[in-house]
Amino acid sequence: MNTVMPHWLTKRAYLSPEQVAIETHEGEVLTFLQLQEKSKSFARKLASVGVRSGENVGIFSGNEPQMIIAIHALSYLGCTCVLLNMRLTETELSYQIKDSNMSYLLASDSEYKKVTEMNVPVEVLSFSMIKTKQEKEVSLVTEISLDDPFTIVYTSGTTGNPKGVVHTYGNHWWSAISSALNLGLSQNDKWLTVLPMFHVGGFSICMRSIIYGISMYVMEKFDVAEVNEAIFSKNITIASVVTVMLQQLTDNLQDQAYPETFRCMLLGGGPVPKPLLETCAERNIPVFQSYGLTETSSQIVTLSPRDALKKLGSAGKPLFPGQLKIHQPDEDGVGEILVKGPMVTKGYLHNEQANTESFQNGWLATGDLGYVDEEGFLYVVERRTDLIISGGENVYPSEIESVLSGCVHVKDIGVIGKKDDKWGEIPVAFIVPSTKNVLKEEILKYAEKHLARYKVPKEIKFVQELPRTASNKLMRRELVKMLS
Amino acid sequence: MNTVMPHWLTKRAYLSPEQVAIETHEGEVLTFLQLQEKSKSFARKLASVGVRSGENVGIFSGNEPQMIIAIHALSYLGCTCVLLNMRLTETELSYQIKDSNMSYLLASDSEYKKVTEMNVPVEVLSFSMIKTKQEKEVSLVTEISLDDPFTIVYTSGTTGNPKGVVHTYGNHWWSAISSALNLGLSQNDKWLTVLPMFHVGGFSICMRSIIYGISMYVMEKFDVAEVNEAIFSKNITIASVVTVMLQQLTDNLQDQAYPETFRCMLLGGGPVPKPLLETCAERNIPVFQSYGLTETSSQIVTLSPRDALKKLGSAGKPLFPGQLKIHQPDEDGVGEILVKGPMVTKGYLHNEQANTESFQNGWLATGDLGYVDEEGFLYVVERRTDLIISGGENVYPSEIESVLSGCVHVKDIGVIGKKDDKWGEIPVAFIVPSTKNVLKEEILKYAEKHLARYKVPKEIKFVQELPRTASNKLMRRELVKMLS
């Protein structure tokens, strides 16, 4: 049965009109009633610009209330939001714009100039430009079908172009409900949102806010002192961060402990080293490590603080409606991690090949390797072949290789991750230059033009040749040895 | 999309093996792991008796852990549980047994003798008889489809025979989730279960327990002193009761206030009078009044304590995924209450007529009358035509009239409810006797044989004739005047 329910924001504004929906670090406050009114008004202005039901519309914005208003407005119009990573280059952005066939791109005021300078193949409108429009009388969505698409977020794979992950309302709903069944739910919760909302990790907080009726505390940038200050003085009860941020937050704490009311540090971006976990225990920071993908609409496997030290390195157990199995485990029990559940995307945007490769009988093949211990705890042994997680962002060596192969100075290239104190990992490129007198700067300049900054190799090492198999396959493990 | 998830009890036992699932007033304790093991074992024993997947199986039991085990066992076998009201007479019980085409009736040990003496048209097995059997190796359900039926509960209507309300797993799931979104969710919750689990009000606690991973505190009978004692000494955080029980609980309290940890008194069975609400406020009892039907799998509209005095007499607002509208309101805004949402049954068991009458475009016509104020709060003006709610049980005048019309001493009959300090309401029968010398006792004897005790008129008033319209329709409002 297709499940239908009232439009989430309309319903939440009706149930909790005076409750604070959004509070920004700069002091702006919006109740659910205000958020609803602004979103409906913005929807009518979008309609007068020409946005129509059923269209895909891009959003290019940092964390700010108007981004959330734009998302709900598009939902009211029956559009799907394509959430764009602000760090993308012109080439990357143009690909996603074309692939998603978006009708408009909505940019935050601060990003508008940058986007228009990039000369992208779609009409770009700033939030302010839309706000000046007259409202057009259109009928807004009153009921949501959980099977309808809500967002598209692009994710890179080990091969080929980035794929558009389509999230239905149901995916986001089930993600929110699954998380609540694990973390509990209180009307007094206030969720710190410093992860970018163009990723599912940040976006999912926006969903939880209206589904649970709780406040989100929105920060545009991760500033370690300001985040700690907010946690101490703003009644934050939950925060979502990645491991590299948690390390900085504890370093910044000195001898202080987090307030008693802070009940959950939800963590993405890989397992936490034991010393950091111990520090968190001392500082009253309950750490919930998790495993998730864009395809699972945020966490699908979570480790509670009470199991953290006992199950060091584990990502935990799948959330209540989720399932997990290991495909073709080897003698050590390690195999590909498959996941299933109503929070898992039904597929990639018009990409039959990727869908056929990744989905079977409702199970998604994650590409990650792992095993499950006798008590049912998941250990992720290796993220998707050679995935580099740098400051919480996924970086695919194959994508960097593919792009830099297009540079005239590069004859051959292999990329791997290198451990880094600040970012967790950084990408390092081994390059066979096309001529002897190539300068690293020339290649970096090319990289900066075509790759988002976090994907640009932080180190370039010139080599005579790359370790390849007889069938010419790159042996990344050999590159790792060459690092040390 | 049909939503699939792991079997709830299996998943809960995997996530929270050591957590207490059931605690009885007599001191018995079962963890989720133990509950799972006992339920699976009982399922295999049921299989060896001959219970097969796809069958409807009756349960006739008071609140006790073995009843819950039997329910989960039937779920593991892929059977549907027909939950039988223990107060039914032979006639009523036999009707539900035949109508549901059940293969077996499972009776608690204490009820077994009573049931077998009733000579019902199905094989009756006591819990103990089944426990002596060998386990049979059968494959148990590992995944639940939310569209599959889980329970059948009979409800009487204004006309005709009782109807079997079919609840899917999804109905119970959404009911539990909707309630959590309203009441919040904490792993420390312990939910007092004194309402009978053969009604959805009690049964829904059993569902919330495994879905949330919280304890239920099971009491077989409502004893006012014992319930208060449990709330004071057993860390109860939530209790479900009906209005008549709440009145007794507060009367019994004298000057005490409930402990701080007690966070919710969830109330069915009609609105609460102001003096009782005020007493509850003084005694630290947060009262959540609610409106629901068997068809809505428990509450669908709920009033929070903060609105209780401001919105006296209101049942509140529909839960997050639920919707509500008033059909053909009159000039005062009063009309039939229609409800919609994923917790609403898809229909009555093989009863096309009732389904056609009650459902339209996903909306259920409740038969109850009400209006919605300008802030969206529901006021129930009149429960389904002339419904009498006596001690939390629904009593339909039409059913009593229909049964007693079969008594030779009754020439004509009209039944209405009368306010009662103890029960809220009691049924009163106005009877035109067939001859002058009929004794009330003779009619009562007939009534006791054919009607559950709570349906037997508490008063009989002999009259010369009944107030009827020209078209011979009974004017119940005229009977009400004759009461005073």
Fold and architecture overview:
2 copies of one chain form a homodimer. With 484 residues, chain A is α/β, with parallel strands linked by helices. The first copy, chain A, has 2 domains: 4-372, ANL, N-terminal domain (Rossmann fold), CATH 3.40.50.12780; 388-483, 2-Layer Sandwich (GMP Synthetase, Chain A, domain 3), CATH 3.30.300. Chain A is 33% helix and 29% strand. Chain A has 16 helices and 28 strands. In chain A, the strands form 6 sheets. The first copy, chain A, has a 9-stranded mixed β-sheet with strand order 3-2-12-11-13-14-15-16-17, sandwiched between helices. In chain A, β18 (323-327) and β19 (335-340) form a beta hairpin. Chain A is globular, with a radius of gyration of 22 Å. The model of chain A has no long low-confidence stretch (mean pLDDT 92). The interface between A and B is medium-sized, with 35 and 35 residues.
